């Protein structure tokens, strides 16, 4: 095991502990037996994330000279509640059936409705409950962040960023919906969505929160590092996500093969394929992309187009260039050496992952 | 105009101003023209509420000796963002088409999708956007509350209550979904939902927040007033809502006649009707309640059952008793006289409203 893998493991352990402690604080509010299903769903959807966002926050904190402080693990772990909330709502919006190899939240509650033989529409019950569960995790994320136990001055310095991150996240997700609806995305518009929808809140903002929590202020070098390293790793992270959404192994991703194709996601990968597709290839994309009933053969046809247009290779090349540029910026930053090494390893892990 | 109506008007003016100022602070984040529709929907859904929750918060603050502080208007107004968020999500969950006489948020965005001739499912686009819009208002509500400008000690004293209110709200809405799904609600379970889903966060918690903001601590008398006045006015408020959902005038409520009947809401009113219905009356309720295609004649049939079983009169009687008990508790509380008069008027307004 490499040193960086060991450190990611140890961050994961601390994050898991902080999340368990937070849920234990909420447990007394769920003493009504009718609420048990809601709490246990919250627990299941919090479990099993990659904990990349807390890791970026952790190493941002260390990069700016932050020391050992249990409060930092709590603040960093709160980002996982936000992520779980976003995934649960995303699955409702995309009508996705599966998440991390389990039924998505709305499907889980739809099944509970069916098994109990309850009244009314099971779909509506499932979706409604998933919206509420996502809301619960969203408000808990803010509560956990604010009650981390970090110094009040640290939290006060970073709170405006945290507030802005949430507004930006909702706006980015809206831009994503709009992009799918408008359909004819260009390469540039798809890239903008990749940055706003995921890149910023997956990498740049967690990193920035950690840096500002430790520095208790924003500095020009922090902003430079967040843009030049954070945004570029963020976009590369999302490009990897796009590739996994088409070519990923269901056993590793926990999502059905070609799920993004079935949902008609207008990713950078697709925009790049369309930009250099022949009329015949364009026709294949137009007829198959977004077909909810797309089967294995359809997935294979679309994969072939994406490979033969050079889009897959182009996206891999972009990931490599963004990563190289990010690592170069990281080298220039006036940060702690241990954090520099860890952030370099984290950038590689985030952009070469298989899940 | 009575003094209390004048004071509610002046609170409304301050609340509207605070909401406008807050939105103006957010406006720079919406410079991308693609985001304009999201911001203007937020503005429309914030406009036009009754501002009852801010009024309970305002008079809680004054009751515990709080003075003139512009920050209080901001903190109180933040409750309207929370309410707008809950209504937007509620309408998605209930598949309601109309809110305050306008299309509900998901219908508004579904229509935008249709008019633009965009790709994919307009329903899915509308619901997805409504979920995000509700999320945006939910996070803004927390941000506005924390950045009111009130003394940090005041906010710190009330923040745990605010956090708990949000958890309780999501749990209460889940219990409501569960109650509708399980169908065979008893009088007691319907009453519990009335308290948890709406009563607490409409009256008790706004009042409690105002009291604790001013007192910068919780006291036994605060708790007593919140339970004996706040919860009872809250339940009576929800009972009035239940009655308006069946008997309300669409021109006043801004919702279609008998909307709650079409949605199959298992309210206290319905539970009370079923408790003393003849077999024939029970059959009418079972066959019509929750029928999405329920027409005017069906609404009239159900209204007749609710009146003839005595359920309407019983609910009116309950409202009166809860109100009387609340006013009695208010008389005993060690609070400022001006606030006592205003809270009495507010309790009457909240439980005798026609919209």
Structure description:
2 copies of one chain form a homodimer. Chain A is mainly α and 355 residues long. Chain A has a single domain, classed as Farnesyl Diphosphate Synthase (Orthogonal Bundle), CATH 1.10.600.10. In chain A, helix 12 crosses helix 15. Chains A and B meet through helix 4, helix 6 and helix 7 of A and helix 4, helix 6 and helix 7 of B.
Question: Could you give a short description of this structure?
Answer:
Chain A has helices at residues 3-26, 36-46, 52-63, 70-94, 105-116, 122-146, 152-182, 187-215, 220-247, 250-253, 259-262, 268-275, 279-288, 296-308, 311-332, 337-352, and strands at residues 98-99, 102-103.
C-alpha geometry of chain A: flat
Mean pLDDT value of chain A: 93
N-C termini distance of chain A: 19 Å
- Uncertain segments of chain A: none
**Major beta-sheet overview of chain A:** 2 strands, antiparallel
SSE order of chain A, as H and E? HHHHEEHHHHHHHHHHHH
Assign the CATH class of chain A.
Answer: Mainly Alpha
Q: Which chain pair shows the most residues in contact? A: A-B, 54 and 54 residues
Number of extended strands of chain A: 2
Structural class of chain A: mainly alpha
Number of helical segments with 4 or more residues of chain A: 16
Number of domains of chain A: 1
Strand order of the largest sheet of chain A: 1-2
Which architecture of chain A would the CATH scheme give at its second level? Orthogonal Bundle
CATH homologous superfamily identity of chain A? Farnesyl Diphosphate Synthase
Q: What share of the residues of chain A does DSSP label as strand, in percent? A: under 5%
Radius of gyration of chain A, whole Å: 21 Å
Helical residues, percent of chain A = over 70%
What oligomeric state is this? homodimer
CATH fold naming of chain A = Farnesyl Diphosphate Synthase
Family (chains A, B): Belongs to the FPP/GGPP synthase family.
Protein name (chains A, B): Geranylgeranyl pyrophosphate synthase
GO biological process, one term (chains A, B): isoprenoid biosynthetic process
Cofactor (chains A, B): Mg(2+)
């Amino acid at each position: 095991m490499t040193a960086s893998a060991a450190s990611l493991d140890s961050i994961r352990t601390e994050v898991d502990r902080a999340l368990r402690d937070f849920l234990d604080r909420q447990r007394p509010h769920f003493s009504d037996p009718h609420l048990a299903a809601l709490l246990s769903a919250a627990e299941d959807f919090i479990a099993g994330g990659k904990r990349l966002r807390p890791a970026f926050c952790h190493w941002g904190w260390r990069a700016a000279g932050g020391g050992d402080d249990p409060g930092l693990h709590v603040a960093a772990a709160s980002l996982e509640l936000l992520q779980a909330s976003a995934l649960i709502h995303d699955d409702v919006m995309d009508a996705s059936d599966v998440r991390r190899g389990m039924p998505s939240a709305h499907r889980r509650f739809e099944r509970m409705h069916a098994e109990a033989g309850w009244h009314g529409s099971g779909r509506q019950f499932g979706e409604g409950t998933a919206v509420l569960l996502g809301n619960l995790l969203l408000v808990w994320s803010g509560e956990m962040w604010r009650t981390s136990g970090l110094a009040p001055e640290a939290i006060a310095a970073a709170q405006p960023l945290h507030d802005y991150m949430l507004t930006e996240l909702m706006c980015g997700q809206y831009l994503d919906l709009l992009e799918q609806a408008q359909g004819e995305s260009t390469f540039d518009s798809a890239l903008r969505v990749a940055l706003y929808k995921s890149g910023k809140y997956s990498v740049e903002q967690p990193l920035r929160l950690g840096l500002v929590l430790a520095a208790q202020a924003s500095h020009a070098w922090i902003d430079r590092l967040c843009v030049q390293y954070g945004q570029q790793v963020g976009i590369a992270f999302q490009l990897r996500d796009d590739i996994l959404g088409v070519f990923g192994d269901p056993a590793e991703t926990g999502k059905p093969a070609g799920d993004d194709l079935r949902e008609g996601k207008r990713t950078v990968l697709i925009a790049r394929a369309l930009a250099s597709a022949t009329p015949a290839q364009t026709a294949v994309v137009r007829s198959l992309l977004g077909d909810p009933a797309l089967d294995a053969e359809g997935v294979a046809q679309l994969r072939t187009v994406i490979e033969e247009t050079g889009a897959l290779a182009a996206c891999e090349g972009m990931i490599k260039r963004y990563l190289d540029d990010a690592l170069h910026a990281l080298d220039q930053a006036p940060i702690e050496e241990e954090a520099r090494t860890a952030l370099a390893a984290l950038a590689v892990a985030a952009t070469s992952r298989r899940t």
